[in-house]
Predict the structure of PPK2 family polyphosphate--nucleotide phosphotransferase.
Amino acid sequence: MKQSADLQTILTRRFRVDDAANFDLSKYDPKDKADIGLSKSEGKALMKVAKKRLADLQDLLYANGTKSLLIVFQGMDTSGKDGTIKHVMSGVNPQGVTVSSFKQPGPQELLHGFLWRIHIAGPSAGRIVIFNRSHYEDVLVTRVHPELLEREHLPGEVGTPEFWQGRFDDIRNFEHYLSRQGTVVLKFFLNISREEQRKRLLRRLDLKDKRWKFSSADMKEREFWGDYRHAYEEAIRHTSCDHAPWFVIPANRKWFARLVVIHAIIDTMENLGQKTPTMEPDLASSLDKYRQELLDEAG
C-alpha cells in the first residue's frame, strides 16, 4: 500500500485539470484507479486516516479565521455527489461546514442575475461551504435545455456562442473575486460512465428501500447524455484556473472517488500553511492566572 503522502501527491496531480485549453473529457476513464494497486479495503483504511487529518486542518481554518474554502460538486445523475459529501466530511466539525444544494431557481431568484443566489451562499472567513450542484448548472442544464433561459428576464439575444462565452467569463471573474477575498475554490466533476449510471438506476428500482431516490426525470435526462458531456467539457475547458481548479474524479468506484476527493482537499488546505493562532502576552498571562485559580479551588 502506498504511503499516504505519496498517494496524496499522485491523486492530486493525476486528476487535476492543468491544461484547460486542451481539456478532453474522453481522455478521463471513469474506472481509473491511478495504477497504484490499491484495494478497496486499503482505500477504506486510508480514508479513516485522511478524515482525521481533514478534521485537524478544518480546526486550523476555523481558528485562524482568515481563509475559507468553497467546494463545488457536479456530476451526472447517480454520480455519487451526496454520498461523497457525506463520507468525506463525516469527520469534520459541523459548526464550521455548510452544505447548499441548488435546485431550479424560483421566481424571485429568476429576477436576479444567475450568480446572485450563489454569492450570498458563499463561505464566510474560517468556514467550509459545499455546493451540491452550483452556478455551473447555468452553463450545463440551461445549455442542454436552452428553453429554460426564457424564464430569466434576460436582455438581448440568448443562447448564442457569445452568450455562453459571457457566462464563462462571469464565472471565472466571480471565482477570481472570491480567491482575492481569501476563499479557496475547488471544483469536482464526478465522472461516471453511461453503463455505470444504468446499473445504479437499476439498483434503485430493484431495492425497495432505494426506490425513493428514483425519479422519472433521471430517465429523461439520460437521453441527453452526449449533450451533457459536451456541456461539461466546455464548462471545464473555460473555467479551470490556478485559483479555482477542476478535478475530474473517476467515480465508477465510489470508495476510490471519495479517496481522491478527500486527498485533493487535504492537499489544498495543507498548502495554506496555517498554524495554531498565537496569543498576545497579556492574554496568555491572564489565562495562566485563570488556570491557577481553577487549580486552587481543588486545594
